[in-house]
Amino acid sequence: MTCDGTALSSDTIIAQLKGLSTAEEFFEALDVSYEPKVLDVSRLHIMKRMGQYLAEEYFSDHRARARDALERAYVEFATCSPLSHRVFRVLQQRDPTKTAAPGQTFVSLDSVLKSFGSDT
Questions:
Q1: Cβ(22)–Cβ(39) under 8 Å?
Q2: CB 85 within 8 A of CB 76
Q3: Which residue of 6, 26, 72, 73 pairs with 50 in a disulfide if CB–CB is 3.0 to 4.6 A?
Q4: Average pLDDT of 93-108?
């Protein structure tokens, strides 16, 4: 909604969101409350998840959908560790429950240090 109570078009809210540069600006623009401590730890994860939610949505409700996506993403990371959700590819690839890809071998730092110490 604008100051005069009229609804923003989906093009307008997208343009507004594209003009934002910090996570805090997204929360303010979409009127979503947050705790700075949570945002400091999980800001990239929250914003990435918001983008994933928006990609799943039909964007006809413009601001309401964007607000809902940001709120859902924030709640997800306010209650759980970013590592438990693994929204970034690098975290998905390093999932300790998955086995290494063929041709990749994990070498622990301890094993390297032990072999180095045995040579001296």
A1: no
A2: yes
A3: 73
A4: 60
Query: Hey, what amino acid is at 37?
Result: K
What are the structural domain ranges in the chain? 7-81
Do residues 53 and 73 make contact, with C-beta atoms less than 8 angstroms apart?
Answer: yes
6: pLDDT strictly greater than 50 = no
H, E, C per residue of the chain: CCCCCCCCCHHHHHHHHHCCCCHHHHHHHCCCCCCHHHHHHHHHHHHHHHHHHHHHCCHHHCHHHHHHHHHHHHHHHHHCCHHHHCCCHHHHHCCCCCCCCCCCCCCCHHHHHHHHHHCC
pLDDT in tens, 75-98: 887 877 666 666 666 666 665 665
Place of tokens 């934002």: 20
Q: Do residues 69 and 54 touch, judged by C-beta distance below 8 A? A: yes
* Buried-exposed string 12-26: b where 16+ CB fall within 10 A, e elsewhere: ebeebbeeeeebeeb
**Mean pLDDT value across residues 36-43:** 91
d(CA 84, CA 80): 7
